[in-house]
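If your schedule permits, I should be very grateful for your opinion on a structural question. I have a record of one protein: its chain in single-letter code and its fold written as discrete structure tokens. Kindly check, if you would, that the fold set down in the tokens agrees with what the sequence suggests. I remain grateful for any guidance, and I place the record below:

***
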Amino acid sequence: MEESKVVVFWFRRDLRLEDNAGLSRALATGLPVLPVFIFDEDILQQLEDKSDRRVDYIHRALEAINQQLKDFGATLNTFYGSPFAIFKTLHKKYRIHEIYCNRDYEPKAIKRDRTIFEFFKAAGIPFKAVKDQVIFDKNELLKNDGSLYTIYTPYAKKWREKLTTKDLQPLDHKGGLFVQQAYTPIISLEKIGFKKTDLTFHPPQLRAHIINNYDKYRDYPALTGTTNLGIALRFGTISIRQCVTFAGQHNAVWLSELIWREFFMQILYHFPNVVNESFKKKYDGIQWRNNEEEFERWCKGQTGYPLVDAGMRQLNSTGYMHNRVRMVAASFLCKHLLIDWRWGEAYFAQKLNDYDLSANNGNWQWAAGCGCDAAPYFRVFNPIIQAEKFDKKQEYSRQWIPELGSAAYPEPMIAHSFARERALKTYAAALDKR
């Protein structure tokens, strides 16, 4: 056992040294900080594709952190296995004074953290989870009567009212001390059962020329009108405080999107049942058709609706889909094909580089009409009108559908007017609104 006391900092969804709340708190203790990252075998074993770009992204972000730690005479200690088992090993090896991490809001992560918390509590060692990936969390934003917000607009209004410059203060990692260790490369992708991908890893950047015009161009998939920071926010290679500060200076519409992110996180935290159930329970009575052949056509981008198909092909090829197109593709699956939103949510979870449970779940339930702040069930996106509005010259569609306009491209698998009427009747029957 090493003699001197250490404080452990556990990296998770916060893969940066800069403006990292939990790391800053750990370094402020004055004790040497042991930085660790655990590749959780339970999570990784669920990923079928061993060339998963998300794992590669995490790996490259960790390599960047490790290079930075080298300048402090330290190294990032990386492990593969069960977090609980690895922490028990660390407990034997080091005199741990405290453990810090940044708070997670997903049900499985909360359960995992609770198990580790209880183990160290029994050993008299504090395990402290710190707010970092949101501006306001848990019960910090409530109605005047103390109840939770479940509708976005009043939540966002209260969020903006409550925000102060103190909430956005960047947190320093300088001045503290890391455990002095010889630099060691992080565990290889091969050792955890994965491969390098075609992903290009760049440190995330806030680009003013894009964010200044975000409200004008964000809905046009052929343009570079969005920030592409979804993956950086998902894995914490950029700080939410930095993003909100920038949004406040440059674009109110982008700020509203960042507030949506927090809204869905607090919904997931307080209503964990939404993972498998509709927020509005009565919507679980919808008689979904769940035709597997039709689902397969949707997955492959063979529906005959160019905007939907281009989006699905972009997703399958790159792990990314433009946000406007995500809404259209999701609405098509739930309303046109009457396929359970959970099928689509699971497919996106498998494919999206920036997959985030709270946002993915929230947006799918919004599209299906069953979420806390959902589009009314009778709103059925018309994919033809959506394409005319946002991809008029078919630049985006042609990029992903080279056979568009030829006999090789399928006819629409269902007429919009028929699908809309069928959806309205099916939803009305489930909700008893005939």
